[in-house]
Amino acid sequence: MEGPKKSKHGTTGKGSGEDNQIASPYSLRLVLVGKSGCGKSATGNSILCQTVFKSKLGAQTVTRSCQVATGTWNGRNIWVVDTPSIFEAKAKNQEMYKDIGDCYLLSAPGPHVFLLVTQLGRFTAQDTVAVRRVKEVFGIGAMRHVVVIFTHKEDLGDGSLDDYVANTDNHSLKSLIQECGRRYCGFNNRATGEEQREQLEVLMAVVKSLEKKSKDPYYTNDLYLDTPELKKGRDDITQEEYRCYLAKVKAHFEEQKRHWVSKALLRVTNCMLSNTGLSAILVICLLIFLALLINLCMTQGH
């Protein structure tokens, strides 16, 4: 595989002869998502069975911009998109919108699977934020195309991943597994040879099952349909077109964010309506808080 080459929209690895900015319609398009430092780049390297993405152990991200590299699996081209820190709360807006836009361009006309990477036994509040950001960046419907990848599978020892998932007391993780249709698998990113091929076979079996069950051949939304690259099919977008495109990216992100918040509020409202006892407790707590606040203000006034 030749080394990655720089492009206007992120970095492209020339792995299987596809040296344009749009994946072939027959390519299997995979987008790596998750919090910074969770092992996305290392997982991408394991999928491609070669070191293409820069990776090192640590909580800080190594990937500074969206990158794509290609490989093959059983004769089918694989198009893997690695992502920078756009799935965390502290992502800077202007840089974030550019990274989101580049991710869309590199994975157009839409990914078959989002690989949500998390470390085994380390699903934290940051991972929960990353799940929320996936919904905000791509839309809630993206969860129908999510497969959870647990890195550090070797830490299971003689135990099984199924038992770990079934017995975890992490409610956020349980909710995620349920939301994505119980699609998950484990990776040892230090594996080589037969072990590496076997874990890739497990992943591809999950992907194949997802493709069969999915109503759509791949995930798409209005922004994917509106990407300039998809319309032109070549890398000749002007600066003005790119600026207008990033404005659409920002508008799309804000719309998805409002939609996600509305859905969350609706769930809370439904929960309260279906549980009058809980509603009463919340109202009492609110009244106590207001009484304390008024008392504090009066005290300070004197």
TrEMBL record:
The chain crosses the membrane at residues 277-298. One of its GO terms (molecular function) is GTP binding. It holds the Pfam family AIG1. Residues 1-11 have a biased composition (Basic residues). Residues 1-21 are annotated as: Disordered. Keywords: GTP-binding, Membrane, Nucleotide-binding, Transmembrane, Transmembrane helix. Signal peptide: none annotated. It comes from the Eukaryota. Residues 25-228 form the AIG1-type G domain. This is AIG1-type G domain-containing protein.
